[in-house]
Amino acid sequence: xxxxxxxxxxxxxxxxxxxxxxxxxxxxxxxxxxxxxxxxxxxxxxxxxxxxxxxxxxxxxxxxxxxxxxxxxxxxxxxxxxxxxxxxxxxxxxxxxxxxxxxxxxxxxxxxxxxxxxxxxxxxxxxxxxxxxxxxxxxxxxxxxxxxxxxxxxxxxxxxxxxxxxxxxxxxxxxxxxxxxxxxxxxxxxxxxxxxxxxxxxxxxxxxxxxxxxxxxxxxxxxxxxxxxxxxxxxxxxxxxxxxxxxxxxxxxxxxxxxxxxxxxxxxxxxxxxxxxxxxxxxxxxxxxxxxxxxxxxxxxxxxxxxxxxxxxxxxxxxxxx
Length: 322
Description:
about 325 residues, mainly beta, seven-stranded antiparallel sheet, five-stranded antiparallel sheet, elongated
């Protein structure tokens, strides 16, 4: 499938174009992913509260609700982003493109060849409509993967370039490309997937972090789709226990991550206690005394955890103990 262009509904950080995902061979994915020399387990991870770390003009779209600020403040507003075309390195332009796993294809260009590509789009904010540009400066294969690429992107507004993605210290960071859209208020993935959608997932945010943990949403392991694992991971990273988009964590708190697919394995050298087990809609079990914040108050009821993965959860998080 390919992506074409049009008005995009939803949060500005998440939808800029239209996307199609070319199929990745599931058997090849499963074989490659099971090799520890290809993907090194990361038993201890840092968690954070932002879903995506996008900087649009002077807005830092990250925070405890996936995005601190979003373009669509309510469902009745008529503000939008409209992606117009993609200018290629040779000076030509296209109005379609695709993703193969996490690698961008535009025209006949792929892998490093997409460098110096420019995405042109219009933004309507209130009575003002103006152009902005995303310049894809550099493309890099991510070490440890065969199907994940990251991109160094600049946002140009009024002839001034600034990093599209910045981390919590305001330093430039790169983005991954994903073929789904997430509700910035609830953290839920949008279903059905919009025909005209592409997510630039900044590496400081949960969307990209969970890909780098190994939960590539387009891939399978031993015939099991990782799409729900990726979504469960975004809830886990942000401690979104109730699956309502509310984060209950502090940026930088280490957590132990474990699953039953062998993507993340137990670390014998890292003592931890089980915090929770996670599904796409939040925590399916929780030990409140092991939560990342003390005196936790939630707006939902979650059973305590029993035997490992007896809850039916896909991923287990653990609190690191001395």
